[in-house]
Design a protein that fits this description.
Blueprint: E1 2-6, H1 10-22, E2 26-30, H2 36-42, E3 47-51, H3 59-68, E4 75-79, H4 84-93, E5 97-100, H5 105-119, E6 126-129, E7 132-135, E8 140-143, E9 146-147, H6 152-163, H7 171-178, H8 187-200, E10 206-211, E11 215-220
Length: 222
């Protein structure tokens, strides 16, 4: 899962990037409200963690601009101003959730997961396509009741595809979501990994289809 963090307190942001990274999240950080939409144009995110007290463009203004543009990205607000009026105004403006500082990382992770599940119309952490399933809690793939053994990079690519099942992802989408910190991974490597995964999916009732000009999409096999 890839997250965008908009937070101007560098110590807090550093801690969040490290803590969420240890839980398997990829976090991009911006410290100025004016940079939020620029980051969103460059990358695809699963959720936005938005501080209200941002320089350049305040969090309230960022939130209102995104919702005015009909951006449906899940947004959780972080703020030290924990008042009823603050909660009401941000939720009314289109925020999906509100977390007051200080907070525990476990609560933030739980809220993020709930928001992303809700935005995808999912009630559990289980993703499925054909006979292939993925449990986000245990981080395991299965074909039927049998485990599907994958290398770490194959696992990361297939996880990204099944979490976006039915939605085509370009090589750049996959690189950005999975390998943003690995400078040695190039678009050609995605082709190799997809080729290997296709072999492992033979007989699984699931296939990776290449859609010309759009990217790769995970579908149930006919």
């Amino acid at each position: 899962m890839r997250l965008l963090l908009a937070e101007d307190e560098s110590a807090l942001a550093d801690w969040l990037v490290r803590a969420l990274g240890q839980s398997g999240y990829q976090v991009d950080w911006v410290a100025d409200g004016r940079l939020v939409r620029r980051a969103m144009r460059a990358n695809r995110y699963d959720a936005l963690i938005l501080d209200l007290g941002l320089p350049g463009l305040a969090g309230h203004d960022v939130l209102e601009a995104l919702r005015a543009d009909e951006q449906h990205l899940p947004i959780i607000i972080l703020t030290a101003r924990d008042t009823l009026s603050e909660r009401v105004s941000t939720l009314t403006a289109g925020a999906d959730d509100f977390l007051a500082k200080p907070f525990e990382i476990e609560e933030l992770e739980a809220r993020l997961l709930a928001l992303v599940r809700r935005s995808r119309g999912r009630e559990t952490s289980r993703f499925a396509c054909g006979n292939l399933s993925y449990d986000a809690t245990s981080k395991r793939f299965q074909v039927g009741k049998e485990p599907l053994l994958l290398s770490a990079r194959e696992h990361a690519v297939l996880r990204t595809l099944i979490q976006a099942v039915g939605e085509p992802l370009t090589k750049k989408d996959i690189l950005d979501k999975v390998f943003s910190d690995d400078t040695d991974v190039h678009p050609e490597a995605i082709e190799v990994l997809v080729h290997r995964i296709r072999k492992r999916l033979v007989g699984s009732g699931t296939q990776i289809v290449t859609m010309r000009g759009l990217g790769y999409v995970l579908e149930a096999a006919p």
